[in-house]
Amino acid sequence: VCNIQFDLKKSCNIDLKVYSIDGKVIKHLYEGFLFNGPTNFELRDLRSGHYTITLTINNKRYSSPLTVIK
What are phi and psi of 53, to 5 degrees? Predict the structure, then answer.
């Protein structure tokens, strides 16, 4: 299990996705409105490999690499 945590300064729409190393969307975790404050998503069922987690907030994209080893 991988926990994805972030803290929104303002309530807004977000889009949270997990991409494979070749750029394909593997999981679309959430798309919609969230209230400000801390937020946590659990990511399960990924195979061993390299991924990118992408969080889009108000058309600004934040990305973080993720390596899964089982």
Answer: -95, 130
Q: How far is CA 70 from CA 1, 22, 58, 61, in A?
A: 11, 20, 35, 28
Between CA 47 and CA 27 the distance in angstroms is 12
Q: What is the DSSP letter of 24?
A: -
Q: 25-55 pLDDT, tens per residue?
A: 999 999 999 999 999 999 988 999 999 999 9
Distance CA 57, CA 33 (A): 10
pTM, 2 dp: 0.89
